């Protein structure tokens, strides 16, 4: 039997995209494809793209063209492109980049093997795109590319919100949840493979279950997952601010394995801007939500993302946002500049904030946050923090690095370890000795 080609995967975009990439790898492995450790030893390059905003589109195009150049030089036999970029731009890509050998939209990941195996001479490259309704479950093979101790679990796909600046519903389809039983079975499989940290993903994790049988909520899923032996940390990402229930906060407090961490993208605090964004919170302001979270016995670490430069954002609106950041003292914060995307309602709004001014606003908020982060970190000096040891720091081989339960992988700060014998994949006590604007430095104890 002829051996199948070696495939190398390039996964662009967010962690939700990474799960799709891992699913495609699993499907390919089940079809006896082999995998290359680097692009130089690959026969086929699979590029899973993001197409959410302009910068992501540019990254996708640059990556595709670079791999196409390798193909022209005979270093790669075939290039296949999948994901949001394909879903967004459709069949025009056949004309714009004819060197690509196959295309798949976000609803067609299950057909990746067929597209890669297509060798019909003289025919147009296969281009499979349709309404995105695909929802992988525990029965679909998956090869995790994250470290063996940590994994992402996508609990739902798509989005049914109608934020005026966002194209995700077009790219990913309506919100659709997986069943609790399917998620518990996949999580159990992960634990059997040595995973101790699971990060829950969806476009809006707090909406989980409300499209299923009445009465199913995220809190029900958390209670089931918390019962699994071997799980140490379960972390919630992408929580809509309008759905942070008291029951959810109580579960975070009462279940030891649920990380005291919430990723709540606020986007803004100006009522006028939130309304224009299509995100106006109907029953609770950002200030009230913050107070409700902060009044819990256990301090819950908060991450948020904000957007500056949205059409109509005045100096008064921006000043209000800055004051909110100062008062909220978020543990982690990211700021995005508004990107005018075709196909969104906001693309037709009159632009009133220049690109230069929007950049200055972003830099101002990040400067405020740096001071806050350093102050919060300094309070941790002298404390012993359970830390998941992840290996050598990419900046220096001299130090190990890790994360606490209040730090999500890839997006948050870290703990540098300069003393002690750390074991990768283990949660170990670290005494914090130094605090910087974002990172902590400590030594392993015990």
Structural commentary:
This protein is an alpha/beta fold. It has 3 domains: 6-128, Rossmann fold, CATH 3.40.50.12160; 150-378, tm_1862 like domain (pyruvate-formate lyase- activating enzyme), CATH 3.80.30.20; 384-444, Nucleic acid-binding proteins (OB fold (Dihydrolipoamide Acetyltransferase, E2P)), CATH 2.40.50. Helices cover 32% and strands 21% of the residues. The strands form 4 sheets. A 6-stranded parallel sheet has the order 2-1-3-4-5-6, sandwiched between helices. A 6-stranded parallel sheet has the order 7-10-11-12-13-14, with helices on both faces. A 5-stranded mixed β-barrel has the order 15-16-17-19-18. Strand 10 (197-201), helix 8 and strand 11 form a beta-alpha-beta unit. The longest helix is centred in the C-terminal third of the chain and has 24 residues, at 355-378. The radius of gyration is 23 Å and the shape is globular. 42% of the residues are buried.
Topology readout:
Layout lengths: L5 E6 L3 H16 L3 E2 L8 E6 L4 H19 L5 E6 H6 L2 H5 L5 E3 L7 H6 L9 E2 L21 E5 L1 E2 L10 H5 L3 E2 L2 H13 L4 E5 L16 H8 L7 E4 L9 H9 L3 E6 L7 H7 L8 H9 L6 E8 L6 H14 L3 E6 L17 H24 L5 E9 L7 E4 L11 E5 L7 E9 L4 E5 L2
Parallel strand pairs: 1-2, 1-3, 3-4, 4-5, 5-6, 7-10, 10-11, 11-12, 12-13, 13-14, 17-19
Antiparallel strand pairs: 8-9, 15-16, 15-18, 16-17, 18-19
- CATH structural class of the largest domain: Alpha Beta
Task: Tally the structural domains.
Answer: 3
**Rg from C-alpha positions?**
23 Å
Share of residues in helices: 25-40%
First-residue to last-residue Cα separation: 54 Å
Query: Which fold name is given in CATH as the topology of the largest domain?
Result: pyruvate-formate lyase- activating enzyme
**Overall strand count:** 19
Shape: globular
Widest sheet, order of strands: 2-1-3-4-5-6
């Amino acid at each position: 039997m002829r051996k199948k080609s070696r495939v190398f995967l390039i996964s662009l975009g967010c962690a939700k995209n990474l799960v799709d990439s891992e699913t495609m790898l699993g499907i390919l492995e089940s079809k006896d494809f082999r995998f290359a450790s680097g692009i130089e030893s690959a026969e086929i390059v699979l590029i899973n793209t993001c197409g959410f905003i302009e910068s992501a589109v540019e990254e996708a195009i640059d990556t595709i063209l670079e791999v196409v150049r390798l193909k022209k030089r005979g270093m790669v036999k075939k290039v296949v492109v999948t994901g949001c970029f394909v879903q967004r731009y459709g069949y025009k890509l056949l004309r714009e980049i004819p060197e690509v050998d196959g295309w798949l939209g976000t609803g067609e990941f299950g057909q990746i093997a067929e597209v890669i195996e297509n060798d019909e001479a003289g025919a147009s490259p296969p281009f499979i795109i349709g309404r995105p309704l695909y929802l992988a479950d525990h029965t679909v093979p998956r090869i995790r590319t994250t470290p063996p101790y940590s994994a992402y679990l996508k609990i739902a796909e798509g989005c049914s919100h109608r934020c005026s600046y966002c194209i995700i519903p077009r790219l990913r389809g309506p919100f659709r949840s997986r069943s609790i039983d399917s998620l518990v079975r996949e999580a159990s499989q992960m634990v059997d493979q040595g995973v101790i940290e699971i990060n829950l993903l969806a476009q809006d994790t707090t909406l989980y279950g409300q499209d299923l049988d009445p009465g199913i909520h995220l809190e029900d899923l958390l209670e089931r997952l918390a019962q699994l032996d071997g799980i140490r940390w379960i972390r919630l990402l992408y929580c809509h601010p309008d759905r942070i229930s008291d029951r959810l906060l109580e579960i975070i407090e009462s279940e030891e394995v649920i990380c005291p961490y919430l990723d709540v993208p606020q986007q803004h605090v100006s009522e006028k801007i939130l309304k224009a964004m299509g995100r106006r919170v109907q029953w609770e302001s950002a200030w009230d939500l913050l107070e409700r979270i902060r009044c819990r016995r256990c301090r819950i670490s908060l991450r948020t993302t904000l957007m500056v430069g949205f059409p109509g954002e005045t100096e008064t609106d921006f000043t209000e946002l800055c004051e909110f950041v100062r008062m909220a003292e978020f543990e982690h914060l990211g700021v995005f500049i508004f990107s005018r995307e075709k196909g969104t309602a906001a693309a037709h709004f009159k632009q009133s904030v220049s690109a230069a001014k929007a950049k200055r606003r972003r830099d101002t908020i990040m400067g405020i946050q740096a001071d806050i982060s350093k102050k919060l970190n300094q309070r941790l000096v002298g404390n012993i923090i359970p830390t998941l040891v992840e290996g050598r720091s990419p900046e220096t081989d001299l130090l190990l690095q890790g994360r606490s339960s209040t730090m999500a992988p890839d997006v948050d700060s870290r703990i540098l370890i300069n003393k002690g014998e750390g074991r990768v994949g283990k949660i170990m006590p670290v005494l914090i000795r130094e605090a910087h604007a974002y990172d902590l430095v400590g030594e392993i104890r015990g």
